[in-house]
Specification:
Protein name: Coat F domain-containing protein
Helix content: over 70%
Structural class: mainly alpha
Shape: elongated
Order of helices and strands: HH
Number of strands: 0
Largest sheet: none
Strand content: under 5%
Number of helices: 2
Radius of gyration: 17 Å
Length: 74
């Protein structure tokens, strides 16, 4: 059974998702603005990697959301 995540863990996941999104966007800018094909290829690989990381973090949130308490804890 999946255990609920703590507020601290939730904050860490949210920060990580924000960081992955920023890295994805920065690499997208590089891929679209560079005339160096080698740089474009590397940026595209990084885009795919950061998209995968973001999706993994999102899946973790979804898995744990089912285990989250629906009522305030007393």
């Amino acid at each position: 059974m999946v255990q609920p995540i703590t507020a601290k863990e939730l904050e860490y996941i949210a920060d990580s998702m924000s960081n992955e999104d920023l890295l994805l966007k920065q690499n997208a800018v590089l891929a679209s603005s560079s005339s160096n094909q080698a740089l474009v290829q590397v940026a595209q690989q990084f885009i795919a990697t950061h998209q995968q990381h973001y999706q993994t973090l999102l899946q973790a949130l979804h898995q744990h959301s089912n285990a989250a308490p629906t009522q305030p804890q007393q």
